[in-house]
Structures are given as C-alpha cells and as structure tokens.
Amino acid sequence: MRVTADRNVCIGAGLCALTAPGVFDQDDDNGLVKVLDADPDAASAAAVREAADICPSGAVAFTE
Questions:
Q1: d(C-alpha 7, C-alpha 1), whole Å
Q2: Integer Cα distance of 28 and 61 in angstroms
Q3: Which 3 state secondary structure label does DSSP give 43?
Q4: For a tag site, which of 1, 16, 39, 51 has the least CB within 10 Å?
C-alpha cells in the first residue's frame, strides 16, 4: 500500500490522524495533513482505507 495526501486540498479536519495515527498527523502550524508513513504495513491498511473514505475534502488517497 502506498499512501498520499494532497495538502492543497486538505481542510485540516484531522479525521485521518484520528483514524490512522501511525500513518497520518497534522502540521502544527496550519493543521494540514502530514503523511508519517507512506508505505504502511498490512496491519494499518484497514485504518488507511477508512481514513481515505471519511476524509471530507478527499485529500487522502492510497494505492494497493
């Protein structure tokens, strides 16, 4: 799995960081998404999928 996040689309809702905290965080300065682990292990896959599904701006994406 490969994870990406578009900071130009992100609105800083933080749902990704709450759903998959080992993969996503928020920037301290502006609250925008930060990808902590662009290549997470299989144990994180379900949380990453959920984070992408619930992202209100569609900033979070992944490929398998």
A1: 19
A2: 21
A3: helix
A4: 39
> Residues for the chain: how many in total?
64
CB-based contacts of 20-26 (< 8 A; 24+ apart in sequence): 20/44, 20/47, 20/48, 20/50, 20/51, 22/47, 23/47, 23/48, 23/51, 24/51, 24/60
pTM, full prediction: 0.95
- What the block records as the tokens of 50 is 């959920």
Q: Which residues contact 18 (CB under 8 A, 6 or more apart)?
A: none
